[in-house]
Amino acid sequence: RKQKDNDTASLSTPSSPDALPAAAASPRAPPARASRRVASPGPATARAAPMGRGGARDGAAAAPPWHSLPDEVLEHAFSFLPAAADRGAAAAVCHGWLGAERRSRRRLAVANCYAAAPRDAVDRFPSVRAAEVKGKPHFADFGLVPPAWGAEAAPWVAAAADGWPLLEELSFKRMVVTDECLEMIASSFRNFQVLRLVSCEGFSTAGLAAITEGCRNLRELDLQENYIEDCSSHWLSYFPESFTSLETLNFSCLEGEVNFAVLERLVSRCRNLKTLKLNNAIPLDKVASLLRKAPQLVELGTGKFSAEYHSDLFAKLEAAFAGCKSLRRLSGAWDAVPDYLPAFYCVCEGLTSLNLSYATVRGPELIKFISRCKNLQQLWVMDLIEDHGLAVVAGSCSKLQELRVFPSDPFGAGQVLLTERGLVDVSASCPMLESVLYFCGQMTNEALITIAKNRPNFTCFRLCILEPRTPDYVTRESLDAGFSAIVESCKGLRRLSVSGLLTDLVFKSIGANGNCLEMLSIAFAGNSDLGLHYILSGCKTLKKLEIRDCPFGNKPLLANAAKLETMRSLWMSSCSLTLGACRQLAEKMPRLTVEIMNDPGRTCPVESLPDDSPVETLYVYRTIAGPRSDTPDYVQIV
Amino acid sequence: MELELELGLAPPNHAGSCGKRGTKEAFGIDKAGLPLILRDDDGDHGSNCSDARDWEMSNKKKRLVGWPPVKSAHRPRSNGGHVKVKMEGVPIGRKVDLSRHASYHQLHHTLRLMFPSSTSHHGDPYAVTYEEGDGDWMLVGDVPWEDTVMSAKRLKILLV
After folding, report:
1. Which of B3, B100, B109 minimises the CB distance to A559?
2. Which A residues 356-395 touch B at CB under 8 Å?
């Protein structure tokens, strides 16, 4: 079972077998014999001798019954449960286990920063060394959440600074992280090692300078798709000359320049550097010299890659890449002159991950390049690869597990030759394919049914047909049959995004068959309340539901109110909800926060509005922290 | 609670019962007195879109907020999205990343935060203009939001 939701999963690596993080194999793993003894009644091991709460016993006495084992024993047993869900289950057994589990928890993942208060989280799990907190709803990625919505990291940093002085890792996703936060991180945790910021905003290079200057044991600085204000601060220069512990450096989202000489010296002295992702400001020839300094790299992001062809630069690149025997993951913004691609041929066979989703390179050179990557597990490309390119991928990359195809021209007239054909080919020939994100202009039920038959092992299937409500282009019917085939066939499906013309019937199928489904995204689909009712009354394991522009109204929401407490969150925008239903929902379910969002600028208080007022956006989530107090004027908590 | 639901077929161009779309944000006159007028391609419809549905029905090709669902990082953009913003009467300029906004209304919201009414214009109406490729200054709001993101080089807020 892929450990995606647990608290050891990394945000940047794909869920592939060889990416299993080291923490999952507990560093405290004992010889197997001892672990067997701990788990079953039997003679006490020497380790049981130190006394815990289980009562005073000496090592020679009979073993305590399992339900009164000393804490040290319990904590040791729990150290074999990295998955948060398993730890949670153990904690629910009895008070003794609850206490032992929470005191020994090392990794904490807070999937919704408003689900619990930071201080409560820190108090409950005092031994945490690694924490991950996520903020804004997923649709914030597409601009559906206006600025200043909330999700400030500051309260979490403050609570952590107080209660987790030994914190080593901190990860924020879709949150507002300020320079003050970064300064506090740099000064509060003497053994801080890993900072990961994904889709965050609110900080500048000055904050980064605080990190590079203050975190003497930093191993990872991973900045993914953040909005970083450029203060022209030479943040990279603040790493001391004696600093050598860096293993991951990702500043690909940074817009500004960095001092290349400083970067080169840093790379030279950090012999454990495995991941280096550069930004657009680093030109090709500099990439070559960095590679010569760091041939041990496992992951490289090349930054800007457009350059006129020069044969000596080509030779430099080819030589530099030839030295990188460990390179497995490659990415970059390749407005690439295709003539340079052969410089990478030597690394193709070793590559497991290729991210060309920012690359506008197209044509036969691209396809030839990918076809050499026989061991590819993860491929992200633009639709410029077209159907015939994907056919080559299907034939060459038999180990492919994850495919993402992004639209090069999201609003254009559809001149790209990528259709359903490409996806059908890949699904037919790549037996390990389990995760797909596919943007295209057309689809048929027949294609989807074929794909479903070929690949019952899908765990993530996200199809986005660019024009809303597009029917099967051959039969002009809805795509109900196709998506139904997907959910019926893929019994392990955990994530699904639907698109195209869809009626309520597809939701009946999803509700009935989506027994592992955790996240569902719906847009411009359905025709009545029934559609939403099918989902909420089915889909037993649903955690996140996000809906936009569907004719779903109040009734199914109220009829399935209790379901919402079993889920992490529900987003509904541009549907047919009214304020009265939201009020009823809030009243009925005190452990949910019911947030409504109207147009920024409209600041009349929600109390004065009548029940039949339309609600533009509803965001509901379960919480044990009560209503948040940091809402902007356009958000009202009902 | 009894749930009375009926299964019905979707009419071919079913758009009506979706309620408001995000595009409604881009319409009408904002309370702060900043006109953000979005006309459709035909130029036939008036700016006061009290009947958003009619507009929606006749402009299916209109760009929707946040659709298709690609992150701003994946959208093609010319200058990285950041443009300088200067306001008449305010000495210090600001920078705003257009690609991180999905609509005129979101831009307006950000501009209001950057240039609060207390500083210079005391709530007087003002207009947002942008300089495009060939150096012309245009009133913000005439063309679909995405076109403005691609072509705007800088913004200037003028007191009307």
Report:
1. B3
2. 357-358, 360
Closest CA to A52 of A87, A99, A105: A99
| A187 in the same domain as A100 | no
Does any domain span residue B146?
yes
Residue type, A92: A
Residue for token digits 């035909």?
A: B42
The answer on pLDDT for A505 being more than 70 is yes
What CATH number corresponds to the domain at position B114? 3.10.20.90
Phi, psi of A176 (to 5 degrees): -95, 115
Do A179 and A95 lie in one domain? The reply is: no
Residues A139 and A172 in one domain: yes
| Tens-place pLDDT, residues A149-176 | 999 999 999 999 999 999 999 999 999 9
Asked whether the beta carbons of A8 and A107 are under 8 A apart, the reply is: yes
In this complex, do A533 and B3 lie within 8 Å of one another by their Cβ atoms?
yes
Query: By the CB < 8 Å criterion, does A598 face chain B?
Result: no
- Domain span including residue A118: 107-146+153-212+220-227
Cβ–Cβ under 8 Å, residues A476 and A501: no
When comparing pLDDT for A547 and B8, which is higher?
A547
Strands (E), A126-241: 130-134, 169-173, 194-198, 201-204, 220-224, 227-229
Q: What is the pLDDT of residue B52?
A: 46
Chain B hits for A201, CB-CB cut-off 8 Å, are 100
Chain A hits for B21, Cβ within 8 Å: 549, 574
Please check whether residue B108 lies inside any domain of the structure.
yes
The distance of Cα A32 from the centroid of its chain, to the nearest Å, equals 33
Our CA-based measurement puts residue B18 at a distance from the nearest CA of chain A, in whole angstroms, of: 5
**Structural domain for B113, as ranges:** 82-159
Closest residue to A439, CB basis, from B5, B68, B75: B68
Name which of B9, B14, B106 is nearest A147 (Cβ-Cβ).
Answer: B106
| Domain total of chain A | 2
- Residues of chain A with Cβ-Cβ distance to B9 below 8 Å are 503, 527
Average pLDDT along chain A: 88
pLDDT digits (tens, 9 = 90+) for A1-41: 344 444 433 333 333 333 333 333 344 444 444 334 334 44
Mean pLDDT of A242-251: 97
Q: Say whether residue A528 is in contact with chain B using an 8 A CB cutoff.
A: yes
* Closest CB from A201, A225, A577 relative to B73: A225
pLDDT category at A52 given cuts 50, 70, 90 is: very low
pLDDT (tens digit, 9 = 90+) per residue, A268-318?
999 999 999 999 888 888 999 999 999 999 999 987 666 678 889 899 999
Q: Do B109 and A439 touch (CB under 8 A)?
A: no
Residues A96 and A174 in one domain: no
Task: Determine the pLDDT at residue A112.
Answer: 98
Q: What is the dihedral of CA B65, A541, A156, A129, to 10 degrees?
A: -130
Q: Across the interface, do A576 and B18 touch by the CB < 8 Å criterion?
A: yes
Instruction: Decide: helix, strand or coil at residue A557.
Output: helix
* pLDDT tens-digit map of A311-361: 898 999 999 999 999 999 999 866 767 788 888 899 999 999 999 888 777
